Amino acid sequence: MTTLSAQRRLATPEIEICEHEGILVVRDDRMPGGTKARVLPLLFDDHAEYVYASPVQGYAQVALAYCAAAHGKRATIFTAARKKRHPRTVEALRAGARLVEIGPAGYLSVVRKRARDYCAVAGAKLLPFGLDVEPIRSGIARLAAGLPVKPREVWTVAGSGTLSRALQAAWPAARFFAVRIGAVPNAGRATVLVAPERFDDAAIEPPSFPSCENYDAKAWAFIRRHAKPGALFWNVAA
Known about the structure:
The protein has eight helices and ten strands. Mean pLDDT is 93; it is low at 1-9. The radius of gyration is 17 Å and the shape is globular. Helix 1 packs across helix 3 (60-70), helix 3 packs parallel to helix 4 (87-94) and helix 6 (134-145) crosses helix 7. By secondary structure, it is an alpha/beta fold. Strand 4 (74-80), helix 4 and strand 5 form a beta-alpha-beta unit. The protein has a six-stranded mixed beta sheet, with helices on one face. It folds into two domains: 11-36 and 133-235, Rossmann fold (3-Layer(aba) Sandwich); 38-130, Rossmann fold (3-Layer(aba) Sandwich). The protein starts with a helix and ends with a strand.
């Protein structure tokens, strides 16, 4: 896939909501780069290059790659070196991102420091981890508030908790549940449930629709057992 094809693919589709097993599912697995690709350009300014320090499994690297290509910007991804690159890193490369691999022990704290050091020298803009900043949250909140649904119960996965807090702003009357997949998230007023899988592992009980196997898919087992009919699940990406 070339950068040009990445630009063509980022013709932003409408948000689709489908019913699966009695649950309303936001199908942003159909959006190139996932949900955050819809709002990430809100962080673009007059910088030519945007840098993100990513876990190898992270989806923000993919979102940045697509968005940068579509807006004529440069995307640089810092991530840990692995013998075999993660498929999401490969997708980011194919969408036009430049990759800087940190090894041999590429702990995320080291990756983030190297990214900061690079930006200080190169004059590039370092994007915040998890894209957990007000423009992103308010952008997602506006998208959600504009949908033709007003759910009473909302489920998400929580890495940083950015998505759950954004949706809480959009639907203040709803009850929220967030499935923790790694570090303790800032999930606002959501009830937090802890996924049994390790962060790197795929979901034990994934849904039938495309869902990020080590992220969104881990919510589905909880939803099957605990969600009320008509609840909404926001599926960020595939």
